[in-house]
Amino acid sequence: MSLLWMVLACAEPLVDSTPYVDDARVLAVQIEPAEGEAGAEVRLRALYADASGALATGAVDWAFCTARKPLAEAGPVATSCLEPESADLEPIGSGLDVSAPIPDDACSRFGPNPPPPEEGEPAGRPADPDLTGGYYQPALGFADPGGTTLVSPRVRCGLANVTQETYVAWNLSYLSNTNPTLEGLLLDGEPVPEDGTGVPSTVAPGQLVTLGTSWPACPSGEPAACEGAETYVRYDPDTKVLDARREALSVSWYTTGGTFAEARNGRTGDEDETGVENTWTAPDEPGEAWLAVVVRDERGGVGFRGFRIAVGP
User: Are β-strands 35-36 and 154-155 bridged in parallel, bridged antiparallel, or unpaired?
Assistant: First the structure.
């Protein structure tokens, strides 16, 4: 035991390097609309950045995955879809802003409808919803450089195995998801100009500052389209009733320089606050740092904004 204690005491603490942007990669993808029906067109808009900040262009090839992951296969998506030349991919487009219709069979391949039979295989079972009652059509982006990014447009597929009365009540009261929106960034209480607008805020090298961001307040207790933490109707398979639930929101922080106290934080659906704070220590060397803030709701909605901060005397 004493040897183990000595090893643990001398070990370096684990550091989450996710917030620190040096090589080119996709940090987030906003899908608009945040929830659409099969066959409806969706737009994928990527936040692609490297050590210089957000990039205006990028070689990212996007495609829908049309293969359902076997139950015995590990991972979030069928492994065949991880190969850019796979026959299980349906091309969407190339770049950082692309659009295409959700495949017509999304609700049978990845939703509550009976899946199409595979030759020589027994009939498959419908997919299970996530905890919010949602279903998702997987899509992938192959970036050069930057690797592979998995995104999942949320598909409005309805309910399965419920009474007609319950289905009608859900269909009348459920509002498809809306992407959350960030209202900006505060540095020690003062607004920071968005990247590309105005004169960047200035901090001293190595200075510790408090950053804050927020989102719109939404009506509580009843469904309403809103760019914050929305209330939505969910079918509870255990109680077999519809209940109202408010979204949790998570916030991820990224930077090309300096360090954050937290890589991510957020608010649960039980919290009334409409924002979060984080602390950031500026780089020791003068220059500029690019920061990005990404907000995600628990139904797959995404919003993001980028900022520049000057580091100098």
Answer: parallel
Per residue in 153-199, pLDDT (tens digit) is 999 999 999 999 999 999 999 999 999 999 999 999 999 999 989 89
Q: Token pair for residue 85?
A: 């030349």
CB-based contact 48:26 (threshold 8 Å): yes
Q: What average pLDDT does this structure show over 285-292? A: 97
Q: For 228-254, what is the mean pLDDT?
A: 95
State which H helix or E strand residue 29 sits in. Answer: strand 25-32
d(CA 215, CA 297): 11
Cβ distance 138 to 91 under 8 Å?
no
Q: What is the pTM of this model?
A: 0.92
Do the Cβ atoms of 249 and 266 come closer than 8 Å?
yes
Instruction: Assess contact for 117 and 124: CB atoms under 8 A.
Output: yes
> Which run of H or E residues covers position 284?
none
Average pLDDT, stretch 200-213? 97
Which residues, 6 or more positions from 83, have their beta carbon under 8 angstroms from its beta carbon? none
**DSSP secondary structure, 228-257, as one string:** SS-EEEEEETTTTEEEEEEPPEEEEEEESS
Question: How far, in Å, CA of 193 to CA of 214, rounded?
Answer: 15
Q: How far apart are CA 79 and CA 72, in angstroms?
A: 12
Which residue carries 């900006």 as its tokens?
A: 184
Two tokens, residue 240: 């077999």
**Sign of the alpha-carbon torsion through 34, 35, 40, 46:** positive
* pLDDT per position as a tens digit, 11-40: 444 456 689 999 999 999 999 999 999 999
Q: Residue 19, exposed/middle/buried by CB under 10 A (0-12, 13-18, 19+)? A: buried
Cβ neighbours of 88 (radius 10 Å): 17
